[in-house]
Design brief:
Order of helices and strands: HHEEHEEEHEHEEHE
Number of helices: 6
CATH class of the largest domain: Alpha Beta
Number of strands: 9
CATH architecture of the largest domain: 3-Layer(aba) Sandwich
Structural class: alpha/beta
Largest sheet: 7 strands, mixed
Shape: globular
Strand order of the largest sheet: 4-3-5-6-9-7-8
Oligomer: single chain
Helix content: 25-40%
Distance between the termini: 43 Å
């Protein structure tokens, strides 16, 4: 119980840091809006992090803890499984050259690697379009959490094929033994879903997860079942995910 309380206090500290960042980057309106939303959810967070027994899910025959955090209220959405899967891989590559596409993990952990995010205003983030990013060195690991589906979709100019260019560019940034691991919500970007279903976006390996309950439990499923999943129904946010891997090593 003492460990859980210490974890809770540490995450409250991150929560306060998040509010400070929101105020600095987006102003007083979004600061107040975010404060109300987060404070409203503090009791739910306390319940999950302190009082509920630890719950796990299975992905590729490994057991992972569901990830509960105040930022983005992970117990309500796909972050609950995306983050533990991707973070475990990042930890294995500590000391190597890592790139994250989309600024996600820094909100939950202390990170020390390159992050490219076109729309981020945070100091130290590479504010560049992923299709144009051409660093001088290659990366041993590239990760991305629910970001690529926005490329060419949630932009002023709708470009269904832009995500293909983004992935091809990222592949070119991998070292000779490099690996890329991405999570993509099913049903959000219908253009991308079609590319995935028709195997035009080629991963070395790809796996599928499905949300099966209101209290946000997830299971691994096969490809045939994956592309029947809809975004936002029957549960809010993503109801299915692809974990895609591109590897230069078999």
């Amino acid at each position: 119980m003492e460990i859980k309380r210490n974890t809770f206090l540490k995450r409250i500290e991150i929560f306060l840091k998040t509010l400070k960042e929101v105020y600095r980057e987006r102003g007083i309106y979004y600061f107040l809006r975010t404060s109300v939303i987060l404070f409203y959810n503090v009791p739910f967070y306390c319940h999950y992090i302190i009082f509920r027994p630890k719950k796990t899910f299975i992905f590729q025959k490994e057991s992972y803890d569901y990830f509960y955090h105040l930022y983005n209220m992970t117990w309500r959405n796909e972050r609950i499984v995306e983050i533990p899967i991707i973070w475990k891989i990042v930890e294995k590559y500590r000391g190597k050259k890592i790139l994250e596409v989309g600024d996600v993990l820094s909100h939950y952990f202390s990170v020390n690697y390159d992050i490219v995010d076109k729309y981020s205003k945070t100091d130290g983030i590479i504010q560049q379009d992923v299709v144009d990013y051409k660093p001088a060195t290659k990366y041993d690991l590239i990760v991305s959490i629910s970001t690529l589906e926005h490329v060419g979709w949630d932009e002023n100019l709708h470009e269904p094929m832009k995500v293909m260019r983004a992935i091809e560019n990222l592949k070119s940034l991998l070292s000779k033994k490099g690996k890329m691991v991405v999570s993509i919500p099913l049903g959000y970007n219908q253009d991308m879903d079609k590319l995935l279903k028709e195997n035009k976006i080629k991963f070395t390996k790809q796996y599928y997860l499905k949300r099966i309950s209101k209290d946000n439990k997830w299971i691994e499923i096969n490809q045939d079942d994956a592309f029947t999943i809809k975004y936002g129904t029957p549960f809010c946010n993503a109801n299915g995910l692809i974990i895609g891997i591109i590897s230069n090593v078999n």
